[in-house]
C-alpha cells in the first residue's frame, strides 16, 4: 500500500459505452468508480480492456483528460470495445442489454503491472466482470494476493446474475455494497426482514461492513451490529446512471481517509445524489464545493 497522503485506488472490470436514445456515454461501474475516485483526490486506475478501434481510442482519450491512469487499461487484439444498450423509464431508472464477447471479457494483466497492484490502497470490483472464466481466474488471483481494502459492489444483471458466484466474491471482500433488491436475492429474505437480511449476509460472508443503498430512501451502513441510515439529498433526478458507482467511490475514499462511518455515508449520499441530478455518469464537479 502507498505511504503518501494520496490514496491509490484500482477498480477492476468492465468499460463500455452506454447507447442511450440521447447518444453514446462512456460507462461501466468500475470505470465510473475510477473516475470519481480520481475526482476525489486518489490516483486511480481501471484494470480493464478496450478494443483496437475508434471507441477504444476515445476511452483512452477520455481517461487521459479525466486523470484516470491508463497503465492497467489494455487493448484486446481481437474483440471490440464493450457496449450496452440502455433505456430509461419515466423515473429515470436505466435497464441494460450488455453485449458479450467484447474486450473487457478478457482482461489480461502483465508482470509489469504488479507494482501498481501491490501498492493499491483499495481494490474495487464487482460480479459482472467475472462472467467469463478467464476474468474469474484473474480476479480470484488478484483478490488472493492484494493487501488493499477490498470493496465488492455487487452487480446482479440478468443473465449474468449467478448468486453463488456473487457470494463467492463477497466472501473475499472487506466491504460489501449492495442495493436492497440485491440484498434480498442474496439471502432469500423479504421486505419485512431488512435488518435480518443484513445479518444473514454477514453470516453468509463473514464481512463486517455492509452498505445497502435504498434508492429514493437513501442508504444504510451496517458494521458489527451498529448501523446508520440516512435519506438522500432532495434533488430533481435527471437519470440514475452511475449514481451508485459514485456512492461506492465516495464510500471507499471516506474509509481510506479514516472518516467516521456516518460521515462516509453522508458524503457518499451527497455525491450520488449530485450525479443523479445530472445527465450521464461522469459530471464535472469540485469536491470541496460539493461537500462544503
TrEMBL record:
<dbReference type="InterPro" id="IPR002139">
    <property type="entry name" value="Ribo/fructo_kinase"/>
</dbReference>
<protein>
    <submittedName>
        <fullName>Carbohydrate kinase</fullName>
    </submittedName>
</protein>
<dbReference type="Pfam" id="PF00294">
    <property type="entry name" value="PfkB"/>
</dbReference>
<keyword id="KW-0418">Kinase</keyword>
<dbReference type="InterPro" id="IPR002173">
    <property type="entry name" value="Carboh/pur_kinase_PfkB_CS"/>
</dbReference>
<feature type="domain" description="Carbohydrate kinase PfkB">
    <location>
        <begin position="26"/>
        <end position="283"/>
    </location>
</feature>
<comment type="similarity">
    <text>Belongs to the carbohydrate kinase PfkB family.</text>
</comment>
<dbReference type="InterPro" id="IPR011611">
    <property type="entry name" value="PfkB_dom"/>
</dbReference>
<dbReference type="InterPro" id="IPR029056">
    <property type="entry name" value="Ribokinase-like"/>
</dbReference>
<dbReference type="GO" id="GO:0006000">
    <property type="term" value="P:fructose metabolic process"/>
</dbReference>
<dbReference type="InterPro" id="IPR050306">
    <property type="entry name" value="PfkB_Carbo_kinase"/>
</dbReference>
<keyword id="KW-0808">Transferase</keyword>
<dbReference type="GO" id="GO:0008865">
    <property type="term" value="F:fructokinase activity"/>
</dbReference>
Amino acid at each position: 500500500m502507498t505511504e503518501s497522503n494520496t490514496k491509490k485506488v484500482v477498480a477492476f472490470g468492465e468499460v463500455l459505452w452506454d447507447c442511450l436514445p440521447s447518444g453514446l456515454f462512456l460507462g461501466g461501474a468500475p470505470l465510473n468508480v475510477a473516475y470519481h475516485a480520481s475526482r476525489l483526490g486518489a490516483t486511480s486506475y481501471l484494470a480493464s480492456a478496450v478494443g483496437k478501434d475508434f471507441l477504444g481510442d476515445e476511452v483512452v482519450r477520455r481517461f487521459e483528460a479525466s486523470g484516470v491512469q491508463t497503465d492497467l487499461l489494455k487493448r484486446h487484439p481481437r474483440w471490440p470495445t464493450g457496449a450496452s444498450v440502455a433505456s430509461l423509464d419515466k423515473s429515470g431508472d436505466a435497464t441494460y442489454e450488455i453485449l458479450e464477447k467484447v474486450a473487457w471479457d478478457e482482461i489480461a494483466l502483465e508482470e509489469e503491472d504488479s507494482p501498481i497492484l501491490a501498492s493499491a490502497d483499495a481494490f474495487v470490483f464487482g460480479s459482472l466482470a467475472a462472467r467469463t472464466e478467464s476474468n474469474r481466474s484473474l480476479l480470484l488471483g488478484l483478490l488472493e494476493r492484494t493487501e488493499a481494502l477490498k470493496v465488492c459492489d455487487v452487480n446482479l444483471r440478468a443473465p449474468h446474475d449467478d448468486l453463488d458466484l456473487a457470494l463467492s466474491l463477497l466472501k473475499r471482500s472487506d466491504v460489501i455494497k449492495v442495493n436492497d433488491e440485491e440484498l434480498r436475492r442474496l439471502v432469500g429474505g423479504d421486505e419485512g426482514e431488512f435488518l435480518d437480511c443484513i445479518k444473514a449476509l454477514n453470516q453468509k460472508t463473514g464481512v463486517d461492513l455492509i452498505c445497502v443503498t435504498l434508492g429514493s430512501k437513501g442508504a444504510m451502513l451496517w458494521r458489527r451490529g451498529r448501523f446508520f441510515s440516512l435519506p438522500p439529498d432532495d434533488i430533481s433526478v435527471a437519470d440514475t446512471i452511475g449514481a451508485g458507482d459514485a456512492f461506492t467511490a465516495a464510500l471507499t475514499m471516506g474509509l481510506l481517509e479514516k472518516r467516521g462511518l456516518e460521515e462516509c455515508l453522508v458524503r457518499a449520499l451527497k455525491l450520488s445524489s449530485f450525479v443523479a441530478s445530472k445527465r450521464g455518469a461522469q459530471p464535472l464537479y469540485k469536491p470541496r464545493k460539493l461537500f462544503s
